[in-house]
Design brief:
Elements lengths: L2 H22 L12 H11 L11 H11 L4 H11 L6 H23 L12 H8 L6 H8 L2 H9 L4 H17 L12 H6 L3 H14 L13 H14 L3 H10 L4 H10 L11 H9 L5 H16 L5 E2 L17 E2 L4 H22 L4 H10 L2 H13 L21 H17 L11 H13 L6 H5 L12 H11 L6 H13 L5 H8 L3 H11 L5 H15 L3 H10 L3 H13 L1 H19 L4 H9 L1 H7 L1 H13 L11 H16 L3 H14 L5 H17 L29 H4 L18 H13 L18
Helix pairs in contact: 4-5, 7-9, 9-11, 9-16, 11-17, 14-17, 14-19, 17-20, 20-24, 21-25, 23-24, 24-27, 26-27, 26-29, 27-30, 28-31, 29-30, 30-32, 30-34, 33-34, 35-38, 36-38
Length: about 775
């Protein structure tokens, strides 16, 4: 019985505390009194039911605290904004509050980029900080709700016809598209062609920020990380659904007269740089931490442009709280906008434009885009900007932004370089326009190489329009090679540089192209990076191995140069260690050397014989134990469920080895050796069963009805017109094994249906361990 009063007292206590809590929160309003702030904060952290949002403070408390902390009235304004920004609220009042807040924030932004800004290392911006602290930045929920209204998003495009609302509208559209689940279709925008055609160049560059979202596929993940099984399923689904929204949007843009031409002009227009820009890199670093919002950047540039038009040297700002029609803040101070601001502006524009051009180059209308950007001289224009803007000299330390490390690829300067290299890669890949990267003198050099080697000149070189190539002493490819060889060992640019140069070699093997690069020391540079610097980056190693394979493929001179550089057993062992450390990265080189070995063994030439007898790499690859070791590991590290565009090259390389074994009537032997290796590793049946499944998938994947049949073309003797896999991330033609080979038995003109024979041999070896399957279509690897 004694427990009852205690229980009652406990209950009463809880009741009293509850009443006190209500009182502390200011009754029905739910806002705490100043004396209980710490208590309510603690309760909010523990239970989520106390003080959890800044708008729960009372206006009285905020006003009192503002006297001491000098918050400029921002928390009170945000409190009013919160109260007036709900459905059925007075939006005129909401607009008035925003007009009061805007100058308080814009003044700091303007001071940040003017010459009178603080030079201290740690600059503080109290208004911006307080605005964020008290919940001023809370747009995610709003943009998600707006994104659900497709007609509203389409309507926003019509507001871009007015210069007064263009920047604000563009920023809002970009934010909405960033969270929208389904992409809008540009062909639904009223009068799209007229709208875009009436944009000035500055507006068009900003519009590219929106286009970057609308013409890219909704799946933003790295394509290499998706399995081929998933991609096949998606392709089947896409075939039934028709073109994607991104493809429709690309076609809509390309139908606008003069659209690509204007992009090319934006990408290649020169930046007038003054001599007094010694602090530009410091400014570049600082600005990037703030200038993610294109609205402020372009507002500043609008002032600079108006200033230039009226031949004024400074900008006048009225007192805080005042604002002009264009939304720009003013102060009584007179300051000059730095010239380097214009350079930053141009960098940001070029980033967006180059991205859009790159996406269009990889789209369904690739040939049309190629023709237009060649006609509008994009490549020679970029060549003229290379030294002054794209790859100008700077200190690496200045590129490290606050809150980031030296490996970050997020500063505008770095991003511009990467986007430039990606554009070159897309432009050169399997297209004869790649020779526009050279100048007239370099094209003549290619012709001289072919003449000296007594081989036919490359037809694409003969067909190149000399009026569209690079001018000056060096073409764009040569400039790229020069900076590539000077790049620091730890630089992330090495990957993109190697990919861009490799794309120039990819496609039909050209001896002249290879020699052009060999004469400029590219092979020695690659070997230095792989062997002497002992590169640790897997991405860089993969790109260098791929490039080395394309550079050496079928080229006796390249193998001689390789042997001259790797001239000791110690160097060769380091090279082999790098190859064997990851076959996913190095298997393309293994494939190229294997194919070259087969070519050389069937040639009667003293120069070739000398290379065969002296080259360590060819001798190593020629050994059956080496080939079996590669085969075993290549098959073992991939499975149907994990095949991607990144690692499917391992399967293709293993097929090349087996195709060559079949040509030498060794296919049954190689399969039996694999079976013995299975048993020695204590998992009999697993490897060959896995290979059987891979082979069946390989047939289905590469013989899918939407694949280009020309990708199966493989021929051996000169002139080389087949394609042996190069870029592991660019679809079928780059990953298809065996080009450059006559894979039929010596003297036999008929094609070799390899897959059915391999399946048959596997069934013989494994017996009941592999269930019989119906034979699939023959893979004719040597069509006539």
């Amino acid at each position: 019985m004694a427990a009852a009063p205690a229980a009652a007292g406990s209950g009463a206590g809880r009741g009293r505390r509850s009443a006190a809590t209500v009182a502390a929160w200011g009754g029905w309003g739910g806002r705490p009194r100043p004396g209980n702030i710490l208590l309510q904060l603690r309760q909010g952290q523990l239970t989520g039911r106390g003080l959890v949002r800044a708008v729960q403070f009372t206006e009285t408390f905020l006003t009192e605290r503002d006297k001491q902390s000098k918050w400029s009235g921002i928390p009170q304004l945000l409190l009013k904004l919160h109260a007036t920004s709900h459905l059925h609220s007075d939006f005129a009042e909401c607009q008035n509050i925003l007009k009061e807040i805007s100058p308080l924030l814009s003044m700091e932004a303007m001071a940040f980029v003017t010459e009178e800004r603080k030079l201290t290392q740690e600059t503080t911006y109290p208004n911006t900080y307080i605005f964020d602290l008290f919940g001023g930045v809370d747009t995610e929920g709003v943009t998600k709700r707006l994104a659900e209204k497709n007609d509203f998003v389409i309507f926003l495009f019509t507001l871009m016809t007015s210069k007064k609302t263009f920047l604000q509208t563009a920023t809002l559209i970009e934010d909405i598209l960033g969270v929208k689940k389904e992409m809008i279709r540009l062909d639904e925008v009223p009068n799209l062609s007229s709208l875009v055609s009436n944009f000035d160049q500055q507006q068009l560059a900003n519009f590219c920020r929106i286009l970057a979202v609308t013409i890219s596929e909704m799946d933003t993940g790295n394509d290499d990380k998706h399995t081929l099984l998933a991609k096949n399923a998606q392709q089947k689904k896409s075939l039934s659904l028709g073109p994607s929204a991104a493809e429709i949007n690309q076609a809509a843009l390309l139908s606008i007269p003069g659209f690509v031409e204007r992009l090319c002009k934006l990408a290649t227009r020169k930046v007038s740089e003054s001599t007094g820009t010694a602090s530009f890199l410091q400014e570049l670093e600082e600005w990037y931490t703030w200038l993610d919002n294109a609205l402020v950047l372009d507002a500043l540039m609008r002032v600079a442009n108006e200033e230039s038009e009226h031949n004024q040297a400074s900008i006048v700002f009225p007192p805080p709280g005042a604002s002009e029609e264009n939304g720009l803040p003013h102060t009584s101070a007179r300051t000059q906008l730095p010239q380097s601001m214009k350079i930053m502006h141009e960098i940001m524009y070029k980033l967006e434009v180059l991205y859009v051009l790159c996406v269009l180059l990889m789209g369904r209308q690739r040939n049309q885009v190629h023709r237009m950007i060649a006609e509008f001289k994009l490549i020679p224009g970029l060549n003229n900007l290379f030294d002054k803007l794209i790859w100008r000299k700077h200190s690496a330390s200045a590129l490290v932004l606050h809150g980031h490390n030296q490996n970050c690829d997020c500063s505008p300067d770095i991003t511009l370089k990467i986007q430039f290299l990606r554009l070159l890669q897309s432009f050169s890949d399997h297209h004869e326009n790649k020779y526009l990267l050279l100048n007239n003198q370099e094209l003549n050099e290619l012709s001289a190489i072919s003449l000296k080697a007594n081989i036919p000149e490359v037809e694409a070189v003969l067909n190149t329009d000399r009026s569209l190539v690079c001018d000056g002493k060096r073409g764009l490819l040569t400039r790229l090679l020069q900076v590539m060889k000077k790049e620091p060992a730890e630089s992330s640019f090495r990957f993109w540089q190697a990919r861009a140069v490799e794309s120039f070699l990819r496609g039909t093997t050209s001896y002249a192209d290879q020699m052009f690069l060999l004469k400029r020391g590219l092979l020695e540079h690659i070997l230095y990076c792989i062997v002497d610097s002992e590169c640790k980056s897997r991405d860089v190693l993969q790109s260098y191995f791929d490039l080395l394979g394309e550079l050496m493929k079928f080229n006796v001179d390249a193998f001689k140069r390789f042997n001259k550089y790797i001239n000791t057993d110690a160097k060769f062992q380091v090279f082999l260690k790098q190859i064997n450390s990851s076959l996913v990265d190095s298997n393309m080189l293994v494939r190229c050397v294997t194919l070259s070995l087969d070519r050389f063994e069937n040639q009667v030439d003293m120069k070739v014989a000398e290379v065969l007898s002296e080259c360590r790499l060819l001798a190593y690859i020629s050994q059956v134990p080496t080939q079996m070791s590669f085969l075993f590991r290549l098959i073992n590290i991939i499975h149907v469920q994990t095949l991607t565009q990144e690692n499917v090259s391992c399967l293709n390389t293993s097929l090349v080895i087996l195709m060559l074994a079949r040509r030498k009537e060794r296919l049954p032997l190689y399969l039996r050796l694999l079976q013995r290796m299975e048993h020695s590793k204590k998992y009999p049946g697993f490897l060959l069963n896995n290979f059987h499944n891979l082979l069946r998938f390989w047939q289905q994947h590469y013989l899918h009805k939407d694949k280009d049949s020309t990708c199966l073309e493989n021929v051996s003797a000169p002139p080389l017109k087949g394609v042996m896999g190069g870029q592991r991330t660019q679809g079928l033609s780059e990953g298809y094994p065996g080009a450059g080979l006559d894979l039929g038995p010596p003297g036999a003109p008929q094609p070799l249906p390899l897959c059915p024979e391999l399946l048959h041999q596997l069934l013989i070896l494994e017996g009941d361990s592999v269930h019989p399957v119906e034979p699939g279509p023959a893979v004719t690897l040597c069509p006539r």
